[in-house]
Amino acid sequence: MDPGATADPTAPSTLRKRPISVDTSRRGDGASREPARRPERGPSEARPEGEREEEGSMAVPAAARGGDLEAGEPMSPAGRLFRETHFNCYIVAAIGLGAAVDLAAARAGLEATLVRHPRFSSIQVKDDAKKHGSPRWVRTTVNLDDHIIVPCLDPAATSANPDQALEDYLSSLSTAPMDHSRPLWELHVLDFPTSEAVSAVVVRMHHSLGDGVSLLSLLIACTRSAAGPARLPELPSAPPRRAGPVHARPRPPLSAGLAALALWLWSYVVLAWHTAVDVLCFVATAWFLRDPRTPLMAASEGVEFRRKRFVHRTLSLDDVKFVKNAMKCTVNDVLVGVTSAGLSRYYFRKTSDTNNDRKKSQKSICVRSALLVNLRKTPGLHALAEMMDSSKSNGAKWGNLIGYIILPFHIAMHNDPLEYIRQGKKTAERKKTSLEAVFTYWSGNLIVNLFGMKAAAALCYGMFTNTTLSFSSMVGPTEQVDFYGHPIIYIAPSVYGHPHALTVHYQSYVNSIKLVLAVDDAQFPDSHQLLDDFAESLRLIRQAASTR
């Protein structure tokens, strides 16, 4: 961080708010939920860019002292990890809308849904009276005035280059602090047209609230189908022919014969071997095994504190599915292959190697990504909607139940663009025959219990700093949906606060996929060129698949 940096003029420090509060603390069933009005307050004071709030400062507010603290739910080890200095992670999701933002409708929608969710109406509290007490989630009163933010941006900037103004504002959030005495989420309203949407909202959430899949599923549960305002959106179902991980496959019946039973038993031998290899690789990476130095890797320490830039590009889901069908693989296999191809194009251009023959003959470089895996079955949209409707836990599991896997990407130039897909399929199939994510989850919990959170955070920090990037993908609605009456044009989520200079995320919605990159603003001044490399790679792969 640069302690001498000044506040960014686009930083969300000058706000226009309307005060309203909704009490979601535990009450009797017949308690009233009438919003309580508060006096108008002035805008909050700005902090210098790059300054982050002090970690671990979870003082007990008056409203959360006494019995409420004891009744609070303990934070999971993964949730506590996201409060550590080097993993103070936030999820930020830009949502493009097809209509101007109706603030009254948005407030009413939030009051009826998101603020009723237990995590979004709780604060993190640690009882200072207990030396080794774990932080807990304690219900509190949600004041929407603290969470709905309408920044005062320069009208000249939003008119001259609205796309750049939106991008700059998103970037400014990566160094803006969040008040940990309140529930850790915000809705930023950017009510000006861009090249893709009439307006936009940005949801910023602390990662300790839950894993990325659960949090984005919760946002989708706040939407409704455009075809039926009372209906939750449709999500794609998993294809029936997809085999899934080896350990999830049932034992074949005896009628299938001894050969089928022997193959099933052998698959578990392979599972044990691959898990052992992956575990050794993971431990070595956490301690000393480092990726080769490339333009894609963080240039120096402290990247988790530096300003990030979030850029995105719309890709055709139909093109991805065409390649998937042609290569007889999955959508994720295609995305892994496209990522390898895009990173390869960027790498060879940045290294100024213009000799094509030399590129093609050069041995491939392996760079690795950290991939978070949600080990808990994500609650369905109906369960999440019911949880928000009742303002209570309905048995649906929630929280950070995540493990890590190390996913390799091969940097190489291939004569046949489809070779990237073959490599991607091979990589994905190999990771299905391993329990690496399960091991990292349970071993992480064991380390926390034996040596404390600092030791677990140190191991995770080693794993991240010795790898090159983060990678993730998520499935979105297959139909047009509305966000509190506003038609959604695109969904572009990402994450920041972890020790990587590059994060790649894919988010599907209707018939498109949003490629979202979160990059170190200083290290990747050509982030839009990197987006072009991904888009061109998909075009070439699609073209090769059509002539196959």
Automatic annotation (TrEMBL):
Concerning Gene3D superfamilies, the annotation shows: Chloramphenicol acetyltransferase-like domain
Q: Which Pfam families match?
A: WS_DGAT_C (PF06974), WS_DGAT_cat (PF03007)
Question: Which residue stretches does the UniProt record annotate as biased composition, category Basic and acidic residues?
Answer: 24-50
| Location of this chain's protein in the cell | Cell membrane; Endoplasmic reticulum membrane
O-acyltransferase WSD1 C-terminal domain ranges (all copies): 398-541
Q: What is one process in the GO biological process aspect for this record?
A: triglyceride biosynthetic process
Where this protein primarily resides, as one coarse class?
membrane
Stated membrane topology is: Single-pass membrane protein
Which key words tag this protein in UniProt? Acyltransferase, Endoplasmic reticulum, Transferase
Q: Which GO cellular component terms, listed alphabetically, does the Swiss-Prot or TrEMBL entry include?
A: endoplasmic reticulum membrane; plasma membrane
Catalysed transformations (reactions)? an acyl-CoA + a 1,2-diacyl-sn-glycerol = a triacyl-sn-glycerol + CoA; a long chain fatty alcohol + a fatty acyl-CoA = a long-chain alcohol wax ester + CoA
- Domain of life from the UniProt record: Eukaryota
Domain O-acyltransferase WSD1-like N-terminal, which positions?
Answer: 102-334
Q: Where is this region: Disordered?
A: 1-61
Please list the GO terms describing molecular function: diacylglycerol O-acyltransferase activity; long-chain-alcohol O-fatty-acyltransferase activity
Q: In which pathway does it act?
A: Glycerolipid metabolism; triacylglycerol biosynthesis; Lipid metabolism
Q: Which family does it belong to?
A: In the N-terminal section; belongs to the long-chain O-acyltransferase family.
Protein name as it appears in the record: Diacylglycerol O-acyltransferase
Q: Give the source species.
A: Panicum virgatum (Blackwell switchgrass)
Give the organism's phylogenetic lineage: Eukaryota, Viridiplantae, Streptophyta, Embryophyta, Tracheophyta
